[in-house]
What does this fold into?
Amino acid sequence: MEADDSTDMVFRSVDVFYEEYLAQVVRRRVDGVHLAWCPDWWMHPEAIARIAALWRAFEYLRLDPGLGMSHWWLHHADPHLATLMDPDTGPFALCSGPDGHSAEIGPLPGNPSPPEMWDHPAFSVDAAEAEEAAGAEEADEAAGAGEPED
It folds into this structure.
């Protein structure tokens, strides 16, 4: 199943997907104890990333007339919504439900890592490209070693 350029998307942006689909279809008792949600969800980077992922997956999987939407619910919507709505550990844990947003939860803590730690192709596109270029250079040198000099 491939989406091509001629396939129109149902929702042209993440906010339209949220307003016209997700917020209308997903109905929960949001009380801050059992489930949490922030009316200003768009002020939470994790929520934006997760809802954007839901939107993209929805647009792709809706093209599968058989199990596409079931797959979307079971493998995308349910786990993302469970994480987003978790009142203890989710990004909205300190928001007061329908009443308001709280920016009290900051980014994950982290100290700067040593840059050389990421100099392996498994961790960096730059490292992969550098390794590929070095391999090509070695191949060129090896190929030129058997040629007579002018």
Observations:
- Residues 125-145 form the longest helix (21 residues).
- The two ends are 56 Å apart (CA to CA).
- The chain is about 45% helix and 0% strand.
